[in-house]
Automatic annotation (TrEMBL), chains A, B:
Its cofactor is Mg(2+). This is Ribonuclease 3. It comes from Ligilactobacillus salitolerans. Digests double-stranded RNA. Involved in the processing of primary rRNA transcript to yield the immediate precursors to the large and small rRNAs (23S and 16S). Processes some mRNAs, and tRNAs when they are encoded in the rRNA operon. Processes pre-crRNA and tracrRNA of type II CRISPR loci if present in the organism. It is an enzyme of class 3 (hydrolase).
Length: 234, 234
């Protein structure tokens, strides 16, 4: 039994696991199993396989319902930004899951406990265990606290394509000529920033700054969308 | 409303859709929407996005529970063989979904109705619509009739690695020397077939034939597993 894990889940997330063995499996790395051959332990990979699919569905369903007008291509890109190693490893850290992983000594020495790929795996295997133990509604309740609020905190904003959103908004009633122009370059060579402006049929709609011309264009488009009361995500 | 579809689902699968509009959306291609701009129609891509994730989870959960001893790598490969364009397009045909797709005239002319990628999309969007209309249990009930029995019919057998399964079986109690040898070549040059035999510590366990040496080895390993009462999948 992994000491403290069940209590941590109860205290911090109100989750009361029925099958402790599922929780143990979800937090046990193969290297630990190999070092304890007589204990007949299981490692997390099979539960992680399931948890990955559970996350895909829960996030897909949430996005599908939250953004009823968003085309499939954007939904897919947004899901990819949320369901990925980078995001999951951050969620795992935030939930302090790293403190409860059972690792072999060699892995421990090579600092595997802080490796994003392992943290991502553990987040998925925890989700798989929670799904098996308590069903999908309980998973949705958990990720409604840990994952979905990050959308409103702007974690995935870099993923939205403001230029395309602006183009779609401006051209919904017919053709419209959109141009981006460099307004100024700021800062020293190694930290050069580009201020870009966006124009629709010659009229300036907004300006924005970025560390590349492209990033500046995105910032300018976001600024223009704000002016029209349109966010790229909505 | 797509004529005959609701009745077909009721008669052949006992499925009674509550929201007809979901069904219409799931079977409508973008080309049809474009040709009927005044009807304010929706096309299937958003529902397909959801249906894809629903299938991933339902198949993952089924495999996870059916094969409790199967390692994650094999589970993933088997899932990939089941959740793919080739399989889904066949399921769609078998369910006669191709007869109900609403297509634009240009697409109809280019024979899109029989294109595997479209059939696959429609199978996924149907699953998405069924999930939204009736929930996951009803989806599992449907694919228990249409998808899961194909496992027992051998549809995905080509995906199992009999050589690895044989090796795992033979080496479970210690080392064992496994060799494959060419026994005979049969047929003309352009249809050459290779008969291979498999040996464990010098004892012949089985023979098999294939259009490559590798395929012959797989067939020989499958034959040996049969002898031991072991299928590669179990």
């Amino acid at each position: 039994m992994i000491i403290g894990l069940a209590q941590h889940l109860k205290q911090d997330f109100g989750i009361d696991f029925h099958e402790q063995s599922l929780l143990d499996e979800a937090f046990t790395h193969a290297s630990y199993v190999n070092e304890h051959p007589k204990q007949n332990l299981k490692y997390y990979e099979r539960i992680e396989f399931l948890g990955d699919a559970v996350m895909q569905l829960c996030v897909s369903e949430y996005l599908f319902k939250r953004y009823p007008g968003m085309p499939e291509g954007k939904l897919s890109r947004l899901r990819a930004a949320m369901v990925c190693e980078d995001s999951f490893s951050k969620f795992a850290k935030e939930c302090h899951f790293d403190e409860y992983i059972r690792l072999g000594k060699g892995e421990e020495k090579s600092d595997a406990r802080q490796r994003p790929s392992l943290l991502c795996d553990i987040f998925e295997s925890f989700i798989g265990a929670l799904y098996l133990d308590q069903g999908k509604d309980e998973v949705v309740s958990f990720i409604s606290k840990v994952v979905f609020p990050k959308l409103d905190l702007g974690w995935f904003d870099h993923f939205f394509d403001h230029k395309t959103a602006l183009q779609e908004y401006l051209q919904q009633d017919g053709e419209c000529q959109i141009d981006y122009k460099l307004v100024a370059q700021e800062g020293p060579d190694n930290e050069r920033r580009y201020r870009m402006a966006v124009f629709a049929n010659g009229e300036e709609l907004g300006q924005g700054t970025g560390y590349s011309k492209k990033a500046g264009e995105q910032a300018a488009a976001a600024q223009a969308l704000k002016k029209f009361g349109q966010a790229a995500t909505k």
